[in-house]
Design goal:
Shape: globular
Number of domains: 2
Low-confidence stretches: 3-21
Helix content: 25-40%
Bound molecules: spermidine
Strand content: 15-25%
Mean pLDDT: 93
CATH architecture of the largest domain: 3-Layer(aba) Sandwich
Number of helices: 13
Radius of gyration: 22 Å
CATH class of the largest domain: Alpha Beta
Largest sheet: 7 strands, mixed
């Protein structure tokens, strides 16, 4: 009889535990590669008793295509500046309820009220950075200072370009002396032809350029600042330069898509990211800048004011934000398709 009771209790316990596990909420994140570290993910899982899954995209356009195609499982997405404006226009973002995000006040005003979401109704900043050229100073000397180096035949098959239409067309536009946000068809045509001319020299189009630099597959890469910084940890001879013709600067944001299954949990996650000690982990892992000034107290000295993160004033002045070109986007889409198809 006693054994029967023990058996019954064991079955009930199994059912209870099984059921709780089955009901564990899952937060689904769609972000850039190398953006959400295991300790941030696990810290949230432990404290909130949930599971966090991270899926990655390689460009803002990939993210848009997936959302427009009806992807509905994501609770958190991380678009960049101009893509935030596009997603707002497409009615794909959920308005944030600030009452649920008290740590919003930790964000520096320097990163709020930007053109893409003037009242920060839909986005909070995650990181900021620039695009430029990462190169191995042990191989490439003197240091390059122009986008022109990415058209130099001596580096054939030794460098990569970002697999990102706005950034890569942008690099060609800058080299030609045009704006990153050109809406002149002849300028886009010229940038396209420049990229087609470059294509036989390019080893690979890849947004995760740090992987190629670390593996030694390339000695130079069109690259984002934090990814270049990450590559220096394995290859200390890697340097990063923002070409003299100018480049892009960006803020990558955190947003909740309209279709998010777990909105309340998503806001809890955003609030968690804005805790100074957690936000410091974002910079420590991604090597991009923090938008929470009090996070700096939790960062090692070399990450507080590093020149990869904080370019000098004269360089900052040469940077442009990518913007939504509206209907003109189709010219960028077509040019990029042609470059990739060649
Ligand atoms: N590995 C993380 C890369 C994040 C890059 N942000 C892209 C900005 C595009 N304009």
């Amino acid at each position: 009889m006693r054994n029967r009771y023990i058996f019954l209790i064991l079955i009930l316990l199994t059912l209870f535990i099984g059921d709780s596990v089955g009901q564990k909420k899952q937060l689904n994140i769609f972000s850039w590669a190398g953006y959400v570290s295991d300790d941030i993910r696990q810290g949230f899982e432990k404290e909130f008793g949930v599971t966090v899954l991270v899926d990655t995209f390689a460009s803002n356009e990939d993210l848009l295509t997936k959302l427009m195609a009806g992807a509905t499982g994501y609770d958190i997405i991380m678009p960049s500046d101009y893509m935030v404006s596009i997603l707002i226009k497409q009615n794909l973002l959920e308005e944030l309820n600030r009452d649920n995000i008290p740590n919003f006040e930790n964000i520096s005003p320097l990163f709020l009220g930007k053109y893409f979401d003037p009242e920060n109704q839909y986005s909070i900043p995650y990181t900021f950075g620039t695009a430029g050229i990462a190169y191995d100073s042990a191989v490439i000397s003197p240091a390059p200072d122009s986008w022109e180096v990415l058209w130099d035949k001596q580096y054939k098959n030794q460098f990569s370009m970002l697999d990102d239409q706005r950034e890569t067309i942008g690099a060609a536009l800058k080299l030609l002396g045009y704006s990153l946000n050109s809406t002149e068809p002849e300028e886009i045509e010229a940038a396209k032809n420049k990229l087609i001319e470059q294509k036989p020299l390019v080893k690979q189009y890849k947004s995760e350029a740090e992987e190629l630099l670390i593996a030694g597959d390339v000695v130079m890469a069109h690259c984002w600042s934090g990814d270049a910084f990450r590559a220096t940890e394995t290859r200390p001879t890697i340097r990063y330069v923002i070409p003299k013709e100018g480049s892009s600067q960006f803020i990558d944001a955190v947003c909740i898509p309209k279709s998010a299954p777990h909105k309340a949990l998503a806001e809890q996650f955003i609030d968690y990211l804005l805790r100074p000690e957690v936000n410091a982990k974002i910079t420590a892992f991604t090597k991009y800048g923090t938008c929470v000034p009090t996070a700096k107290a939790f960062l090692p000295e070399n990450l507080r004011e590093h020149k990869f993160i904080y370019p000098p004033k004269e360089v900052l002045e040469s940077l442009e934000w990518l913007r939504d070109p509206g209907d003109f986007t189709r010219h960028y889409d077509r040019a990029w398709e042609e470059v990739k198809a060649k």
